[in-house]
Structure formats: C-alpha cells, structure tokens
Design brief:
Largest sheet: 3 strands, antiparallel
Number of strands: 5
Order of helices and strands: EEEEEH
Radius of gyration: 25 Å
Oligomer: single chain
Helix content: 10-25%
Structural class: alpha+beta
Strand order of the largest sheet: 1-2-5
C-alpha cells in the first residue's frame, strides 16, 4: 500500500495597490473596546518650521540666518505612519514570530 500524500495548499501573495514601505522607530498601542490589539507605528524626527523670514541683503541675496515663525512647533515630532488592528490570536502569532526571529539571531 502506497503512503497517502498529505493535502497541500498554495498561498499566493499580492501587494495591495496602496501597499507602501514605511520606517518605524517606535509604536504606541493597546487594546480597543472590542478587545482587539491596536498598534500605531511612528517615525521620530525634529520639528520643521512653518515658515522662515529672511532679510534681503543689499546685493539681493538672502541672509542665510532667518527668523522662524512664532507658530512653529519646537521639539520632537513622532509622525504616526500607519495604524494596525488585529485580534489577540494574530498578535500572539506575531509575538511568536519575533521571539523566534530574535532567538535565532542573537548577537
């Protein structure tokens, strides 16, 4: 008697038209009221001025030092790039994925 072949399933991966790659250096998250996991990934950067006013020199060039507008933000910006919602089972699978990945690549 020949051994039975195990059933197989082929999974195809396609990128959604809105797919994009983003850089993240942190996240904020928690549980939603529906007990789902909510994660918002952000990239940290310095703030940029809303506007800068430069003096025009007698030779019609701009003075390299300008005055930053008063309504500009001062500090660090955490720009939230993408939010991801998932159920607890999916969150656990991702946790296990990262755990295994780091255990195999300990430095």
């Amino acid at each position: 008697m020949e051994p039975l072949e195990k059933p197989k399933l082929t999974v195809f991966y396609e990128k959604n038209p809105m797919y994009r790659t983003v850089y993240a250096d942190g996240l904020i998250g928690g549980f939603t009221s529906a007990n789902a996991v909510s994660l918002s990934f952000y990239a940290t950067r310095n703030s940029i001025p809303k506007s800068v006013t430069y003096e025009i020199e007698p030779n019609n060039t701009l003075n390299p030092v300008g005055a930053v507008s008063q309504d500009s933000k001062v500090g660090v910006i955490r720009e939230i790039e993408v939010g991801v919602y998932m159920n607890r089972d999916t969150a656990r699978e991702i946790y296990e994925f990262f755990k295994k990945m780091f255990e195999e690549n300990v430095r």
